[in-house]
Design brief:
The structure is a single chain. By secondary structure, the chain is mainly alpha-helical. α5 (145-154) packs antiparallel against α7 (171-199), α15 crosses α22 (514-532) and α18 packs antiparallel against α19 (447-472). The strands form 2 sheets. A two-stranded antiparallel ribbon has the order 1-2. A two-stranded antiparallel ribbon has the order 3-4. 69% of the residues lie in helices and 5% in strands.
């Protein structure tokens, strides 16, 4: 069986096993889920180690350059005189997707370990968890737009129930808000997907296709099709290709999330249980950034070039706005949630620069933030599970009560604010380098956008250091008094085993960024070349 197919559907197999086991074996469900994620992580590491690099393996717009490919006819419908309608099960990876697959696999292991705190309806929780795991892997592997859309939508239902059934006090509100926001973008994405299908033909058979790689080649568009580059078709007075880009961008920007489409995120994070918060921040947000690169920029490169300034501006607004909001929060989960909005702004700024440095930095930031946000939300969950409180002002002097916990918090905070030697420093440095280079190389972004983006790093230092000072230093002062002092025990063995690998990863990537750059470089150059061909 193809390695990617195995990677995608392993969670479904283990989910089926859990569904068949009696509820009396509920204590085994968490171990079965952990085994599923560990097997998946092992497969991802094997794929990473066997991934070939070089110009001949760039992928992006060249189907023959993708690796671990499986392409099988899936839906084949005879339309009579109108030809045939075919959809393929088409999966494969390039440098960008292989790194996000590896990151997601490790994050799912951490989320599975964090799920051991769940006490109610374990069978339902872990089945939904594994369905979500399958959908996430499918999104990063899909090269057929229809298949991509199915996996993309499949994520929505498990997340809705995981938040709505196992979340906090306002879980129903948060789940419905998340569902409606995401569905809004997805419905209009479906319309653009159908328009692309009717516009693009398979060069070998002449039939319409959902193949995303074919959609990146202008030669595959019919001269009179709605999204043809030469036809200049308009809808509502807007060029069809521009409108298609905007619709797809909004759908993915909701996931990133880009300001002002971010308001679902704080509510979802605050109400979601710890493992779901980890998945939301570490993986779901990256699917938004991945979709912008894989679909928006690669299928509509000329629109991305013309709108680069606005993409960069939205990125900078997200960086500054997210950081300022993080400074104003008292709920520790909201501090981390708004910091995610700010950190993901660097992804958009790097993409907007359309330089190799900027796109490499954007990809590195997605990988780095995936690990760091996992660590941060897990650490928040540690305190919340002990005293069921997250208010920053209700804690002081935790450093003397929980020294091991404080050590990992300091690693996570300093790594997240971009301290040299950690992964976030490399990611932000390359994103900003690309943005600074853009005015002289392609003239797409003004210098002031780069300067404003750099100010976001200073603001991130402010909210992380303020939180560290307020909660962990000074004499012990807790709202819950002696009861909290007893409850706030230091990290146990499971929590240390969870946090040590994450700490090592963000440190190793900060010292050896080539572990990521060597894999993504060829694909990044292919995206840049695709963008330059439209000028």
């Amino acid at each position: 069986m193809n390695q990617l197919t195995l990677l995608i559907f392993i969670p479904l197999l283990f989910g089926l096993i859990i569904s068949l086991l009696p509820s009396t074996m509920r204590n085994s469900f968490k171990y079965i889920t952990l085994v599923a994620t560990l097997v998946q992580l092992g497969l991802s590491i094997c794929l990473y180690l066997n991934f070939k690099t070089g110009a001949g393996f760039a992928g992006v717009a060249n189907e023959s350059q993708f690796q671990f490919v499986q392409k099988l006819p899936w839906i084949n419908l005879n339309l009579g005189n109108m030809g045939r309608m075919q959809m393929d099960y088409f999966v494969g990876v390039d440098g960008i997707s292989i790194m996000l697959l590896l990151m997601s696999s490790l994050v799912m292991v951490i989320a599975a370990l964090a799920s051991w705190e769940i006490k109610s309806n374990l069978k339902g929780f872990f089945i939904l968890f594994l369905i979500l795991d399958m959908a996430v892997m499918g999104v990063f592997c899909s090269l057929d737009f229809f298949l991509f859309y199915i996996f993309y939508e499949l994520m929505l239902l498990p997340l809705y129930f995981l938040i709505g059934m196992w979340g906090g006090v306002r879980r129903e509100y948060a789940a419905i808000k998340f569902f409606l926001y995401t569905l809004f973008g997805s419905v209009f994405m479906l319309l653009v997907m159908i328009g692309l299908y009717l516009s693009v033909s398979d060069p070998s058979t002449g039939t319409h296709t959902f193949n995303m790689v074919y959609m990146m080649n202008p030669a595959n568009y019919g001269a009179n099709s709605i999204f043809s580059i030469v036809n200049h078709y308009t809808l509502l007075g807007i060029p069809a290709r521009t409108l298609g880009f905007i619709v797809l961008f909004v759908a993915f920007a909701i996931k990133v999330p880009v300001v002002p489409l971010h308001t679902w995120l704080p509510d979802a994070h605050v109400e979601a249980p710890t493992p779901v918060s980890i998945i939301l921040a570490a993986i779901l947000l990256k699917i938004g950034g991945y979709g912008i690169i894989r679909i928006c920029v690669s299928i509509f490169p000329e629109v991305a070039t013309h709108g680069a300034f606005w993409l960069g501006l939205l990125g900078v607004i997200s960086i500054i706005y997210g950081a300022l909001n993080a400074l104003a929060q008292r709920d520790l989960k909201k501090v981390i949630a708004y910091s995610s909005v700010s950190q993901m702004g660097f992804v958009l700024l790097g993409i907007a620069s359309q330089t190799p440095e900027g796109l490499s930095g954007a990809t590195f930031q997605m990988v780095s933030h995936g690990f760091l946000s996992t660590m941060l939300f897990f650490l928040v969950g540690v305190v919340y599970n002990r005293v069921h409180d997250r208010d920053v002002y209700n804690f002081r002097g935790l450093g003397s009560l929980m020294p091991k916990y404080t050590l990992f918090v300091m690693i996570a905070f300093f790594a997240s604010l971009g301290l040299p030697g950690f992964s976030a420093f490399i990611a932000e440095a390359f994103s900003l380098a690309g943005a600074f280079k853009s005015p002289t190389v392609n003239g797409l972004l003004p210098y002031w956008l780069s300067v404003a983006g750099a100010a976001g790093i200073l603001l991130s230092a402010c909210y992380f250091l303020w939180t560290l000072q307020r909660m962990f230093f000074g004499s012990v002062s807790l709202k819950g008094g002696d009861v909290w002092k007893v409850a706030l025990t230091d990290l146990n063995a499971r929590e240390i085993i969870t946090l040590v690998p994450l700490s090592l990863v963000v440190l190793i990537l900060g010292i050896m960024p080539s572990l990521v750059f060597d894999k993504v470089n060829d694909s990044v150059l292919a995206v840049v070349q695709l963008l330059h061909l439209t000028k």
